Structure formats: structure tokens, C-alpha cells
Amino acid sequence: MVRAKSEERRGEIVRAALEVIAERGYRGASLGSVAERVGLTQQGLLHYFPTKEALLVAVLEERDRWDTGGGSRASAETWRLDLLAALVEYNAMRPGIVQTFSALLGESVTEGHPARAFFTERYAQVRGEMAALLRAEFGELLPSGLTPEQAAPLLTAVMDGLQYQWLLAPESVDMPAAFRSFLTLLRGPGA
């Protein structure tokens, strides 16, 4: 019972941190502001997350769990191109989460950022998953002649790049439709 309460409290803190980071960015978010949002002192928050960096990683891991239906990162066998399209549609319904992820991704490219290792590892894993997905869908060569390993970083870049464009101009960029158009390019003529 105590463990369940502790996990529930950790979940509240992570959700509050996500909101604060979405509003202020990682560098502008403080442990005090997160603690205040969940009715704790900063010292009380440190009982659950000993550092701001630990809380940030928990926020990023939680975001990935939401994308994969509650589990850990999806395996290559579970992803298909149509499921990626569904994920893009789902993301279009939750701009706050996408904005937080995008802001943290942008900040993480700076040397010494606490999320840099998380994103570096995440992208290596995602590229591998996308290559496996493309291999399952097309075999060793896509209709364009690219290998799955050549196309995987492009697929990943399109997904994240569309998020940035959509966040900046949601009335001009239909993220799900643009992604479906990209899938048409991947599948080639007559698909």
C-alpha cells in the first residue's frame, strides 16, 4: 500500500514537472515550483527525486511510456508504418506534451545538458527500431533503393521536424496529413 502511494505521488510530481517545463522550459523550471504545484516542500520533493536531472529523466521516460501504450519503448515487431501515422495523429491531440518534448530536445543539444545522454541513447534506439520497422515493411531495400538503415534517420527526422513546424504554425501545418504524404513517398509509386 505504501509503495503504491509512493508511486502515485511520483506520478503526480512527474505530471506537474511536465506542466512546469512546458510553461517555462527546463532551465526556467525549478524544483520549488514543481513542489509547490503538488503541495510539497522542495525538501519533500527531493525525497522522491534527489535532483532536478533525475526528475527530468523521469518526465522523458513517462512521455515515452505514453507513446508506447504504457510499456517500455515498443519493440520493432510492434511498430508498423500505419501505427506511426496513428502516433502522429495522437501527438496532434496533445500539443503540451509535444511542446515539452520538443523544447527539451532542442535544449539537449547543448554541451552538459542533463537530457543530452537520454536523447542520444533514445535516438540510437529509435533509429534501430525504425530500420527494423522498414525492413519488416519493405525487406532489404525500399522502393527508392535506400536500405532501411539509410531511411531510418530520415523517417525519424520527418516525424520530429513535422512536430516543430506544427508547433510553430498549427493552422498552416497539418502534421498527420503531412506524415501520411511522407509515407506515400516512402512506399513509392502505385502503393
UniProtKB/TrEMBL annotation:
The keyword DNA-binding applies. The keyword Repressor applies. Keywords: DNA-binding, Repressor, Transcription, Transcription regulation. It holds the Pfam family TetR_C_6. Residues 7-67 form the HTH tetR-type domain. One of its GO terms (molecular function) is transcription cis-regulatory region binding. Residues 30-49 bind DNA. This is TetR family transcriptional regulator. It comes from Streptomyces katrae.
